[in-house]
Structure formats: C-alpha cells, structure tokens
Amino acid sequence: MINTSLRILLIEDQKTDVVLIKRQLKKLVRDPKVKVAEDLQGCRSHLVNFGPDVVISDYNLPTCNGLEILELTKSIDPDVPFIFLTGTINDEELAANTILAGATGYILKKHIHNLEEKLKPLLKKVAFNMVAREDVREKVRQNKIAVNQIYNYLDNLNADNSEQLKNISKIKDTIGDFKMDEEDEEE
After folding, report:
1. How confident is the model over 134-169, as pLDDT tens digits?
2. Domain check: are 141 and 111 in the same one?
3. Fewest beta carbons within 10 Å, which of 52, 70, 96, 187?
4. d(CA 107, CA 85)
5. Structural domain for 36, as ranges
6. Is 141 found in the same domain as 107?
7. Do 113 and 148 have their domain in common?
C-alpha cells in the first residue's frame, strides 16, 4: 500500500467503471482523494481548483477524446503525471502516440479487476517523487491552485470587459441619439 495520500483526478464517463476504479485505488493508496469529471469543462475545473497529483483518464469520452484531455492537462500543469485507463487503445500506434503526446502510461480496461497490480508501479513512482519533495509539495500545490484561479478569473474578466465595452458603446450611442433629439427639439 502507498502510504502517501494522493490527489487523483479521474476522467471517466461510465459510472460502473468509476466505482470499480475507486475501489481499486482504495486498495492501493491510503486515503486517496479522488475527484471525477467526464468532460473538458469538469477536467479544467478540477485541474484549476483541486490540483491533482495524478490524472487518470479514459480515452474515449462522449464529448471529447483522451488526447484533448491530455492537452488541456498539460497546458494547465505540464508536470502532472497522466495515465490512460482505457478499452479503446488496442492499436500499438495509438498507444505510442499517447506516450509521445506526454502520457506517463496507459492501462487497458480489460485489466480493471487487477488494476491495483497494473497501476501500482506508476503510482509508486508518483508517490516517491512527492515524498522526495514533501516539504514544498503543499506550498507548490496551493500556489498552482492560486495561479490557475487567477488565470481563470482573468479569462472571465476579459470576457466581461469585452461585454462591458459593447454595453458602454451602446449607451454612448443611445446618449448621442438622445442629445440629437434634444437639439432638434430646441431648434
């Protein structure tokens, strides 16, 4: 058993698989903190606000694919380990492409009942790297979360600003029309 508590982001759309994976993770990791998402938006939210130690993702999702999830993950936190747990990677070329794209590894869902055995070496490596830098781990996580939230806020602020600028322009146009009407009435 891995004694270091891990924060795990699980990207999975099948509820039964979520239950099975969580059960296997509890056998493998003491007190795992698991958040689940099934699309890019949920993934982004958890990456920004949860700051996972590792991401485990299905490859084939209803609204996106695993490479899109991997790309989003790496854009927010390039250092987070990323593991595919999927039933769709039976093509060696696709499996190689996932690794080349930055995935730490992949496990086929046909091994889900002995996931503990397949996942153990990958998670041990994650835990080992975390323990080696335990003193700064939580500070780094909190800083990443804060920075990601600031970026998210700024993105929303930029969207709001453009909307506000449009509204200000409309108000100015309306005021200009109103002034013209007043000037016409005075003549």
Report:
1. 666 677 777 778 888 887 777 777 666 666 767 667
2. no
3. 187
4. 5
5. 7-132
6. no
7. no
